[in-house]
């Protein structure tokens, strides 16, 4: 977490939960294995992303994760590996994303990992757990076997702290993703719906996490969400971005002055960024360095008309 806790420092409590798993692996000379539930599917909102397939935003994140394993390998020769537990199939029906788009995203991500030669990364999906089952049945089996009750989650969120931050973050993303031009209802109805859906997304994520814990008990758990000190997951930031909640699948990669950041597509375009195509497909944006600060959205306070 960027505020409070152990920002920039690592205290004994931070590492307490994970030290044993690392020591166990090292004692038997095994490679250190991480599990990262992430890379679900692109946001369905065209104001945030370039399309349904992974692009340079994902590629940069994968490069970072692979290089992290290489850095571990430099000081511990058996090395490390990250199992990317792509969770699109777990909750795409709640996000209004088709199963076909999830399949396309997963395949393209696999191709990307192969093409990059990212030998420390591998992808794992719900399809590999319930082989041959229908997609809806997979989600039902996962929920039946592993999901907590919604009321249990409500209590955690009411108690504040990290669960409340998570709930707010997910509600915010759902509002952005579902308030596209196709939505015709009122804002308050959409907010109610997103709060309801956020609980269901958290419920499915927990179910997925529980299943992964059973399947990979020796692995160290990573999370793309900011984590407070002393939790069972290590929070990991996939890209250099001012908003710790912004992920490659909710944004576009923007290169400016030789550095990359993530921005929502509409923000990048508003700031004057130009799209770049690679092999005939949209890949990322380039922004002149003097325009690098994201312009606020028109409805946000502090908006100034561009000259
Ligand atoms: Zn700490």
UniProtKB/TrEMBL annotation:
Alphabetized Pfam families for the sequence: DIT1_PvcA (PF05141)
PANTHER family cross-referenced by the UniProt entry: SPORE WALL MATURATION PROTEIN DIT1
Record's protein name: Pyoverdine biosynthesis protein PvcA
Organism: Streptomyces kasugaensis
């Amino acid at each position: 977490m960027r505020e409070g806790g152990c920002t920039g420092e690592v205290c004994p409590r931070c590492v307490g939960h994970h030290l044993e798993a690392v020591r166990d692996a090292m004692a038997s000379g095994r490679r250190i294995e991480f599990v990262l539930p992430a890379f679900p599917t692109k946001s369905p909102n065209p104001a945030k992303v370039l399309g349904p397939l992974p692009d340079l935003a994902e590629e940069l994140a994968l490069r970072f994760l692979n290089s992290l394993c290489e850095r571990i390998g430099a000081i511990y020769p058996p090395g490390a590996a990250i199992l990317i537990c792509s969770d699109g199939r777990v909750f795409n029906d709640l996000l209004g994303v088709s199963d076909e788009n999830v399949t396309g995203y997963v395949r393209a991500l696999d191709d990307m990992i192969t093409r990059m030669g990212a030998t420390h990364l591998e992808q794992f999906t719900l399809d590999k757990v319930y082989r041959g089952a229908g997609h809806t049945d997979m989600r039902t089996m996962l929920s039946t076997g592993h999901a907590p009750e919604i009321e249990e989650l409500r209590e955690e969120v009411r108690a504040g702290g990290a669960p409340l931050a998570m709930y707010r973050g997910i509600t915010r993303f759902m509002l952005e993703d579902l308030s596209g031009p196709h939505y015709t209802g009122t804002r308050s109805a959409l907010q109610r719906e997103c709060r309801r859906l956020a609980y269901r997304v958290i419920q499915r994520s927990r179910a997925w996490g529980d299943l992964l814990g059973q399947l990979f008990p020796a692995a160290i758990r990573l999370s793309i969400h900011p984590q407070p000190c002393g939790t069972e997951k290590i929070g990991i930031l996939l890209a250099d971005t001012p908003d710790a909640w912004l992920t490659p699948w909710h944004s576009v990669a923007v290169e400016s002055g030789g550095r990359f950041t993530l921005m929502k597509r509409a923000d990048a375009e508003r700031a004057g960024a130009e799209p770049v195509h690679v092999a005939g497909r949209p890949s990322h944006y380039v922004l002149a360095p003097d325009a690098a600060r994201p312009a606020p959205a028109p409805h946000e306070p502090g908006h100034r008309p561009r000259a």
